[in-house]
Amino acid sequence: GGNKRKLSAGMALIGGPPVIFLDEPSTGMDPVARRLLWDAITRTRESGKAIIITSHSMEECEALCTRLAVMVNGQFKCLGSPQHLKSKFGSGYTLLAKVRVETELEEMDLQLFKDFIESTFP
Predict the structure, then answer these.
(1) Are residues 46 and 85 both part of a single domain?
(2) Per residue in 19-34, pLDDT tens?
(3) 61 and 32 share one domain
(4) Are residues 110 and 70 in the same domain?
(5) Around Cβ 23, how many Cβ atoms within 10 Å?
(6) pTM score > 0.70 for this model?
(7) Which residue in 38, 62, 70, 119 has the fewest CB atoms around it within 10 Å?
(8) Quick count: other Cβ atoms within 10 Å of Cβ 25?
(9) Which domain holds residue 6?
(10) Does 121 score more than 90 pLDDT?
(11) What are the pLDDT digits (tens) for 71-103?
């Protein structure tokens, strides 16, 4: 859990290696521990060290990374700053809903569903 992650991250940062690899560094940590780890990673990055992080958390990537690469099926699909990727790929939503309408009442329910989606995500 979180304590093993803290220990692993501490071991990776100790000794000042020129490149640090961290795999999902804050997964399972409580918010206070995550903030302390992120602060340590940021200080290390600002000291000129290269840090390579794998993460599924966009929040973590935005907080820690100066450049992001997105991989799909083991292939790099895009590379850039967090702001660049958000600007290029972050607008709009795609929602695919498959429904079976068999009665007139279900058709009315479907219209309510459509109206809700359109009002919630303009």
Answers:
(1) yes
(2) 999 999 998 889 999 9
(3) yes
(4) no
(5) 13
(6) no
(7) 119
(8) 26
(9) 2-89
(10) no
(11) 889 999 899 998 888 888 776 667 778 878 787
